[in-house]
Amino acid sequence: MAHVNENYSKLPGNYLFATIAKKVDAYAAAHPHANMIRLGIGDVTRPLAPAIIAAMHNAVDEMADAATFRGYGPEQGYDFLRNAIIKGDYETRGIHLDTDEIFIGDGAKTDVAYIQQIFGSDLKFAVADPVYPVYLDSNVMMGHTGNWNAATGTYDGVVYLPCTPENGFKAEPPTEKVDIVYLCNPSNPTGTAMTKSELEAWVRTAKENKFIIIYDSAYETYITEPDVPHSIFEIEGAKEVAIELRSYSKCAGFTGTRCSYVVVPKAANAYTATGEAVALNPLWNRRQCTFFNGTPYIIQRAAEAYYSPEGQQQCLADVKYYMENAHIIRDGLTKAGFTVYGATNSPYAWVQTPNGMKSWDFFDLLLDKAQVVTTPGTGFGPHGEGYMRLTAFGSKENTIEAVQRIANLKLIK
Ligand code: MLT
Known about the structure:
This protein has twelve helices and 17 strands.
């Protein structure tokens, strides 16, 4: 008898963005003439940069020639991309990494869901609340939580780190024992960002308590303030206690192209039951060699082009474009009387719902009365209740129009 993975039955509903897509599709079917503006899922709308397209064309041509054709690539990624990452993302910030500390993946969502496989099956983890749902849902599926508690909107056995206006929506290190902590900085969903001294406190606590920080810096290109680190490895000693994940989705428009990387420093250790230190880098290498056959060559050449002078200039122009949208949302909704957080170091605005309205009610109201799609804060965790997230990844015209439509509802008296 095939025994199903019963952990799946702990999940109270579908994946957040699948639920939203279903609701939006139903609304669109019922209102075929509605002019909807989608500021829900953080999906980019600008086309790939010309330098990236050119690199992909070249790589496609190489695949057409027997002399330059590529079959299976290295499971860890090609050295041309690994070295471009070290040079472009780390040496520029005074961080030294070896090529074999970089692992190319096919998207940070995949990497972040799988990284737990190198830790013990009795893994205890902490997450910010609210949080990017993949960290939590993937651990539920792997049996690292107790049951879902509908009354609190939490899983038993998970350490939640509340992010509230009082702490600036910045998770504080856990006081109880955990094995790993997921940190997204700048934060998805709140759009807020931890400073260097705040990250130093995290690294210090991780060292003292021997936990590993799974650091998701997917939004680092959006940082505008000088005291917000772009990498956790800017913090002294972080290589001993952190794994960093990066995506090309938001910095280079790869949401549909799929490429990412994981940095597993050789100095990072976890421990056996008897307390012996075991290096994590060879474990992730072993995992990748077994489970993964590498990101396609054409895609890795595309990612490499991001680091060329033209690629940098073109991609950063798109980031600037999206950040202008973020400011349009932040400033426009603030002017309309809303309390808005984030959108300074991040393409996400975290907006307090009017008059204590529930997140999903506000989502429905905006969909129905303004035809604007958002993401309800409660979808990211119980402390997201009373908020909604808007993404800056739309077009400028749509962003202006969406803000105007929301303001016109005159919800704040
Ligand atoms: C989001 O909207 O939170 C993300 O873009 C979704 C993702 O990266 O998977």
